[in-house]
Amino acid sequence: MTNDNKKIDSATLSTHGKLSMFNEGLKSGLANGQKFTALMDELIDTSDGEVLLSAAQKLADFKLDSAYVTFPHQYKNADYYLIFMSRLLSMHQDEKAILNSRAHSESLYHVFDAITDDYTFLYQVVTNDNGGAYYTEQTTGESLFYIHLERRLLRFNSRAFTNLFINKLLLKGTGVDQINSVLATLIAFGHYLRDDFGFNVDFNILDVDNAAKYELREANLNGEVVDKLFVTAAQNNHMLRNSPKGHGAEIELQSGLIVDIFDAGKPGSAKWVLTVRDQGQRVSWFDVLLHFDFMRNWYLANIDALEIKADPLVFA
After folding, report:
1. At what angle do helices 293-301 and 223-235 cross, to 10 degrees?
2. Distance CA 129, CA 269 (A)
3. Per-domain residue ranges for the chain?
4. Are 66 and 159 in contact (CB under 8 A)?
């Protein structure tokens, strides 16, 4: 074989290699697309909760495009959290969170009939190693809760609920019933995650359990803040009593509904908390804020001290 023939053979093999690589790249990209559509079928059609959760978890991290195959129409990874939430709610016959898409794009978002559609909700994916996503209202930027599908974790955020539903909605004319309609869906979502999948859920300011202790931002609460409650309670025909738990005070807002604020810490280490007790365990501290104006005004006026702490690992 001459040197020229060797060059021709080498060129032929090189061309064959390039074509094979190209073809294999297409096959791989298309197979990836088929894997994606199979997961979408599960997300859209399954009635099995675990299959739904698994599909959402995989799609939230899925990279559809490859070096050889690009899909021009596709949802963002954050949108699969929304689809999962909507599907889970619909499986429990709760359709109040309406899934919409923006014109000329595949971007998804939630609206609620009970409040103006000026308020839209979507997920923002955490891009660092922690993972997970925040369910965020877009006009205010308030992150209502954090969810991590793989770790099966859900954390509600007291500050966001106060800022959005009280400062932005209630105090500007939105009715309590309208707000409660949205809250009911968000709370129900937390219960479905806990009951169906065993999620670790912290309802935070929305917790109705009589045993719940809402930890205050200011661990060593200034006595003047409690004194202000004594004054405003008297002005509204309520009497504060010394807390049965020790250092603090309690108030009966109506028959059987008692709010207690006290130091639950150990000697030398203060830890002020709020509790809400009612016979049916249906009332949270947030319910108190919605329904009792003087308690809400006291809380908001002293928010730097009284704000209910959310999980510091996910909410700064």
Report:
1. 150
2. 34
3. 2-74, 83-206, 214-306
4. no
Instruction: Using alpha carbons, select from 119, 125, 164 the residue that is nearest to residue 147.
Output: 125
| Count of other CB atoms within 10 angstroms of residue 45 | 11
* C-alpha 249: how far from chain center: 32
Q: Edge-to-edge strands of the sheet including 108-112?
A: 97-101, 108-112, 121-125, 133-137, 143-148, 153-156, 200-202
Q: What DSSP character marks residue 187? A: H
* Ordered alpha helix ranges (H), the chain: 3-45, 49-60, 79-91, 158-161, 176-197, 223-235, 285-291, 293-301, 303-306
Single-letter code of the amino acid located at 277: R
Domain 214-306 has CATH 3.30.70: no
> Which of helix, strand or coil describes residue 146?
strand
Distance of CA 293 to the CA centre of its chain: 27
Characterize 178-200 residue by residue with b for buried, 16 or more Cβ atoms within 10 angstroms of its Cβ, and e for exposed: bbbebbebbbbbbebbeeeeebe
Q: In the predicted model, is pLDDT for residue 28 greater than 90?
A: no
Please report where in the chains the tokens 């660092």 appear, as a residue: 128
Work out the pLDDT band at 145, boundaries 50, 70, 90: very high
**Most confidently modeled range among 10-24, 189-203, 240-254:** 189-203
Q: What is the pLDDT of residues 190-240, one digit of tens each?
A: 999 999 999 999 999 999 999 999 999 999 999 999 999 999 999 999 999
What are the φ/ψ torsions at residue 36 (nearest 5 degrees)?
Answer: -65, -50
DSSP state of 135: E
Q: Is the pTM of this model over 0.85?
A: yes
pLDDT for position 12: 54
Q: How many residues does this entry show for the chain?
A: 316
